[in-house]
Amino acid sequence: MSTPVKPKGTQCNDISTILTALKYNGDKPPSNCCEWAALSCNADGAVVRLWLSDTQLTGTIPGALGNLTSLQELWLFNNRLTGTIPDLQKLANIQVMRLYNNLLSGPIPASLGALTTLDSLDLSGNQLTGAIPDALGKLPSLTSLFLQNNTLTGPIPDLRTKDGCHLLPQNGGSSSTPLCFSGNNRSGKCYDGIKDTVKDCGALPAPAQASDQTADTSSGSFPTLIVGICAAVVVVLTVMGFMVRRRSRNVKSITVPTA
Questions:
Q1: Which of 27, 113, 158, 258 has a CA positioned 20 to 30 A from the CA of residue 59?
Q2: How far apart are CA 172 and CA 177, in angstroms?
Q3: What is the pLDDT of residues 75-119, one digit of tens each?
Q4: Contact residues for 236 (Cβ-Cβ < 8 A; gap 6+)
Q5: pLDDT tens string 219-253
Q6: How far apart, in whole angstroms, are the C-alpha atoms of residue 62 and residue 193?
Q7: Distance CA 194, CA 177 (A)
Q8: Residues in a beta bridge with 207
Q9: C-alpha span between 88 and 131 (Å, rounded)
Q10: What are the residues facing 47 on neighbouring strands?
Q11: Are 55 and 75 a contacting pair, CB within 8 Å?
């Protein structure tokens, strides 16, 4: 039988503080929190994974999470957490952060840009506001980002993967693309991940050929309108001339009776 991992330092006290702030009402962790099913510890007794999704959390995300400096995965989705996302830049080893489908509000903290090991970030389905921080575009390990169904505004920053490829929505984004922004109030200029070009954030990129054809049609519309007007004027004048000549002939054919 293997010897249970001993928790490192104050890890279990930190977990207790975190659970209180989250308003967790489920089964409490044992005195050796590393034996609790909702988290995992490494061989040194440091918490590396915390899974509290679908556990009816109604509190706030505490800054004390930053004390779990070895944490690699944070799963808090499908709850009713409120408040803002705290400064978590001390999570120097975080790789996965799942906070989607909560009631989180306020801006996306720029401090998330300090999480250089972050590979996947999902903040979708909340009430986040403001602009997407440029700092997210500097995350060297990021491969997936989901921000849809918030009330984010402003331009989308230049986001690239660790391989230098654009990490951007394709045709507005979907669950199968590396980055999704749908359901927000985007504005300004954004990168088109398909064509590697700049486009308006508020509209899907049109095919280049269709765009050129539209431009050609619009450029020739004014001369066409002038020709049409001239033709109409000629027709009207012809009809009026015919009517005048006919009326003149009718007047000449009338015989004035003598007294």
A1: 113
A2: 9
A3: 999 999 999 999 999 999 999 999 999 999 999 999 999 999 999
A4: none
A5: 444 444 444 555 565 555 665 665 656 555 554 44
A6: 35
A7: 11
A8: none
A9: 19
A10: 41
A11: no
Distance of CA 227 to the CA centre of its chain: 48
Tens digit of each residue's pLDDT (9 = 90 or more) over 128-166: 999 989 888 788 888 888 888 898 888 877 765 554 444
**Contact predicate 115/85, CB 8 Å:** no
Going from the C-alpha of 212 to that of each of 173, 199, 215, the distances in angstroms are 25, 15, 5
Strands 73-75 and 185-186, sheet pairing: unpaired
Residues contacting 77, CB < 8 A, separation 6+: 53, 54, 98, 99, 100, 101, 102, 122
